[in-house]
Amino acid sequence: MSAQLQEVSHYLSACTIPVAAGDGIGPEIMEATLSILRAADPNLRFVPVTVGLKAYESGLLSGIGEDTWAAIKKHGVILKGPVMTPQGGGYKSVNVTLRKTLGMYANLRPCTSYAPYVTSMHHKMDVVIVRENEEDTYAGIEHRQSEEVYQCLKLVTRPGCERIVRYAFEYAKLHGRKKVTCMTKDNIMKMTDGIFHKVFDEIALEYPDIQNNHMIIDIGTARMASRPNDFDVVVTTNLYGDILSDVAAEVAGSIGLAGSSNVGNTCAMFEAVHGSAPDIADMNIANPSGLLQSAVMMLVHLGRNAAAGKIHNAWLLTLEDGLHTADIYRDGISTRKLGTREFAEAIIERLGQKPRKLGAVDYPEQTRNQNNRLNISPLPTRKSVKKLVGVDVFLNWDKDERNPESLGQQLEKIAGPEFCLSLITNRGVKVYPQGKLQTVCTDHWRCRFLLDGNDNNPHAIAHLLSRITNESLDAVKTENLYDFDGVRGYSQAQGE
Amino acid sequence: MSAQLQEVSHYLSACTIPVAAGDGIGPEIMEATLSILRAADPNLRFVPVTVGLKAYESGLLSGIGEDTWAAIKKHGVILKGPVMTPQGGGYKSVNVTLRKTLGMYANLRPCTSYAPYVTSMHHKMDVVIVRENEEDTYAGIEHRQSEEVYQCLKLVTRPGCERIVRYAFEYAKLHGRKKVTCMTKDNIMKMTDGIFHKVFDEIALEYPDIQNNHMIIDIGTARMASRPNDFDVVVTTNLYGDILSDVAAEVAGSIGLAGSSNVGNTCAMFEAVHGSAPDIADMNIANPSGLLQSAVMMLVHLGRNAAAGKIHNAWLLTLEDGLHTADIYRDGISTRKLGTREFAEAIIERLGQKPRKLGAVDYPEQTRNQNNRLNISPLPTRKSVKKLVGVDVFLNWDKDERNPESLGQQLEKIAGPEFCLSLITNRGVKVYPQGKLQTVCTDHWRCRFLLDGNDNNPHAIAHLLSRITNESLDAVKTENLYDFDGVRGYSQAQGE
């Protein structure tokens, strides 16, 4: 052990990290990664916990052992290998459940080019994608409502937007990044994506030293593929971030080498981006770099910056030296093809050295403090005046050749005394009154009832539902309509 | 006029096409495009109609003049320039409204590389993206439900999936394409994206001569950026298709040159992919190629294949000859920088000639028939047995430090007699019974009530809502829970 390493181990007290090896290549890349961690920072202790197939097979649909929940609660972090989710049978994704149950709202995905040592479409690329991790259509709330119609809820909350946007700016500040770009589709989803964009603009004002801009996600993702150097830190919603971060990693050429972190206020999870690759398991050929990069992010999170920098630089030098696992081995660039274990040994041999061509990383000690965890508190909740102004009742209706005039006339009669029928839409398009004949209609009708006058009787909706049911009409869902501080809290119909 | 052109014009009878010039560079690129169409097919007639700023300014929030609705109804097609949607003020997107109101369910986006004449990241690329055009979160149904929570509905219908998937396979068959790839995120959205994938698998069986596969949209989009040659025809949902087609066009290098079509059973709209670029309007420097490519797709749709091929090949030859508008002009590749009008004249001069290096296109006469319109009828509706088994009631609740135990105990008392409380989730994560303390809760709670026993009283939900209201609890929405033919029609909670 070098003098420098001695210094690190003296400096920091012991620290215990729960590790979940996962499935497929998980155990062997975890073993390789832990061997490097032990060599760089002897005061680390590791406690194995259960996730993935072993947990599923023991009957836990979540794929998460009780020991895992307890260890994360106690130690506040987990280093996790890739996990396989069995198809069907009600099995839930380990990652989604851990992220959401433990409030790990921020998913960080650094996407870096290591050209020319690893094939990349872009020779310079160093982007960090900050993806919201808990909301959006990934809440998994789905309902089948009729013979034809399936629905998923996209939920976006103001505190959720505030947390992730502030995290992105704080991350940029802490790591010396220059620009934060927000991506949404708020030209279409004016309320859900609109609130994300609005919160971004509000919070950006608090960081005058960091540039900011907004792009529509379609062209933003396209530009990430063609001109990633336009970007520094990008913050976006869950689904867009999922797609965008895969595009960024792919054009960087480093999807197999990329780490990621999932960060909340009370705990954080570090995991590789790639899957469990069962076809190459137990062959000592898998590349442990993704998990190792995640472990480096974890060390920074824990304030063990010196060890993090040491490992990161040794890994870069190993790449430069052409010592490559099979997945990135290329004639002319690589010098030797190494197995998983041998690759880890090559990194251990280089601990304390720096890369010559690829820029050496530096995790300055001044960032080594509690701020590393970027504990973001939400703003105090505001209190708007919420006023009920009506209700959208969704009917499953398949009569009279789906002629909206027929349905409209029937509903006009039963809307009163509390409500009047404002319009009917089908898949968001107005079909009553005065629809277009060409509109293709499903068996699922959104019927908008507005409260007549200032009657704000909270029982009105239950009464309306009773009248609808009495007419043998089949109401499958309701969405109340509110104004907030006098501003309409619901979208207009297409064609309205 | 050459003998060949005479032949075309004799062969096909006159045909009238409504044309909407649009805003910004719209009028000048439309003029250039029509000059080429007139030269290639003198039996075409054009009737100008109103969309965009002119319509918005006359007070039409839809941006669509009555003359436009009438002309599309009469002629079944429209050629449209780019349109600007004013921000705010309730203005609706012309494109979305036209597509949805007129049932134009299929959006076709060919993405082709013209390397080395136009800069591209991939020298060979010829992909067609078939994007569903009417459903998904683009139905624009949004509701704000509490101080914190905004919601958008994602709607997917089985007939919608059947139409677009069948269109993709029929298109592949008609145009000699070899493979259709489906992209969804059905590992997360098992019901909405699940039905799209399921219908794809069903319909693929009917086309044994065409290869098919499915990819998750995140890695699929990434691969489109890095290896577009893996793809031929891709079919996907509205939002994914929006992002994917921009990525594909961008890496092809042809976003400014790309046409698109929007096709329904009774009409079709053809438009460039790019925007109205007001900053360069009226300067005779805009590139009319995107609109021209759309016009070529329109001619094929109308069965005027000979004229379509003639224009397409003359345009390819003009690119090859290095006669370029400013946007694609590059020293060393281009020979002359042309204005909008002069570029159109160069194409007209080359009508009847074929490109030497870029592959000449061929629109065979045998495809010139009614089938060009690919009039897809939905399958007959099935009839499942739908059984009400419960209801998800969503509450806006912000008391008792948002402790789910407190809410759960209150609801247990009022669930009966019809229902029992099954669980409470917050943003999809189970928080009652037996939630995790770390779960971050918003002011928006999904409370799942299951019908107790076999009681299928349709009034039960109205009664439950009344009891909830009597407790001064604020129910903001409901989603009924159904089984269809005994199969559960709603998702489980995360952590359930």
Write down the oligomeric state. Answer: homodimer
Q: Can you give the mean pLDDT of chain A? A: 90
Please report the number of helical segments of chain A. 14
Poorly predicted regions of chain A are 1-10, 368-372
Distance between the termini of chain A: 73 Å
Topology of helices and strands:
2 copies of one chain form a homodimer.
Chain A lengths: L2 H9 L3 E6 L5 H15 L3 E5 L4 H5 L8 H10 L1 E4 L13 H8 L4 E7 L13 E7 L9 E3 L4 E9 H17 L4 E6 L7 H13 L6 E6 H10 L6 E4 L1 H15 L6 E5 L4 E5 L16 H13 L3 H16 L2 E2 L11 E2 L2 H10 L36 E11 L7 H12 L3 E8 L2 E4 L11 E8 L8 H11 L3 E11 L2 E2 L8
Parallel strand pairs in A: 1-2, 1-3, 3-12, 5-10, 8-9, 8-10, 13-14
Antiparallel strand pairs in A: 4-5, 4-11, 6-7, 11-12, 15-18, 15-19, 16-17, 16-18, 19-20
Short description:
The first copy, chain A, is α/β, with parallel strands linked by helices and 496 residues long.
Description:
Chain A has 496 residues and is α/β, with parallel strands linked by helices. Chain A is 33% helix and 23% strand. Chain A is built from 14 helices and 20 strands. In chain A, the strands form four sheets. Chain A has a ten-stranded mixed β-sheet with strand order 2-1-3-12-11-4-5-10-8-9, with helices on both faces. Chain A has a six-stranded antiparallel β-sheet with strand order 17-16-18-15-19-20, with helices on one face. In chain A, strand 1, helix 2 and strand 2 form a beta-alpha-beta unit. The first copy, chain A, is elongated. In chain A, 57% of the residues are buried. The N terminus of chain A is likely disordered. Chains A and B meet through helix 5, strand 6, strand 7, helix 6 and helix 7 of A and helix 5, strand 6, strand 7, helix 6 and helix 7 of B. Strand 7 of chain A pairs antiparallel with strand 7 of chain B, so a sheet runs across the interface.
